[in-house]
Amino acid sequence: MNYEFLSRTFLFQGTSPEETKHMLSCLKATPQSYAKGSTIWQVGDQVKMMGLVLNGSVHIESIDMMGNKSILNRIAPGQVFGETYACIPGEKLLIGVTAAEDCQILFLEVGKIFHTCPDTCPCHEKLIRNMLMVMAKKNLELSRRSLHMAPKSIRGRLLSYFSQEMVQQGSSRFMIPFNRQELADYLGVDRSALSNELGKMRKEGIIEVNRNQIHYLECV
């Protein structure tokens, strides 16, 4: 286990690798590996653990009764998922979680985060504060996606998303974590229609696209 890496994540920030190692034993931490495309959790599951991505990445997906899938979020190394459901005993998942690539997940028992252990870990207060920050950050990410979905046109949704990434990465040239199909799912549009719109934006000199790298030319 890479305790140096874990101590730099949002959940364990402010703790040393040694403190992180001690807390993991309190949280009944269990690592598990998944192959790309594997289902980690599915709609209707009940969970009491949250997942922290150690390597690889996972997709949080909304799947309707007809099997149509929409990507709500991509969870990268160091980020967590499932914390909200794990805090509500008996709550059934309304989302699915799938391995976007080969990945390793560290599962943590949420109930033990909010109840101090018998050893009264001196860093437990930090863990609770970090957990609240993680949940607030996740709510913010969902709000951002709602903003991207607000425009009716595909171009409007693309520009909303690209503008956010440009601001967060501090450059008009930025990387996105999605391939073409995943981006279409994330923005709730048809892949062919999205590809056509990207082509139009390139011809109009608005953007340049090189796989996952976008150059927003109108800001130059």
Automatic annotation (TrEMBL):
This is Crp/Fnr family transcriptional regulator. Keywords: DNA-binding, Transcription, Transcription regulation. The keyword Ribosomal protein does not apply. Residues 152-220 form the HTH crp-type domain. InterPro entries: cNMP-bd_dom, cNMP-bd_dom_sf, HTH_CRP, RmlC-like_jellyroll, WH_DNA-bd_sf. The keyword Cell cycle does not apply. Residues 11-109 form the Cyclic nucleotide-binding domain. It comes from Blautia faecis. The lineage of its organism: Bacteria, Bacillati, Bacillota, Clostridia, Lachnospirales.
